[in-house]
Description:
Number of helices: 4
Low-confidence stretches: none
Strand content: under 5%
Helix content: 55-70%
Number of domains: 2
Radius of gyration: 29 Å
Distance between the termini: 68 Å
Number of strands: 0
Structural class: mainly alpha
Amino acid sequence: xxxxxxxxxxxxxxxxxxxxxxxxxxxxxxxxxxxxxxxxxxxxxxxxxxxxxxxxxxxxxxxxxxxxxxxxxxxxxxxxxxxxxxxxxxxxxxxxx
Length: 97
């Protein structure tokens, strides 16, 4: 189904649309449909520059991750959890406040 819609575009965009339509020998509406489809496919995805920057950060950070045995990490996490459960204001439990 095709619907007619109205958009307000600036002069530069109109010029680009006209130029693209002439170069591609396509109706302006088809150029707009193709452009929106292309934009839709790319929307929300990283650009190549952004992807490379993030990969560089990961490559820099991964070597800084401490290499410790899993059991040691699990013990530390459990110690933190136990301390939090036993902690609070002045070491008082909720029931004794």
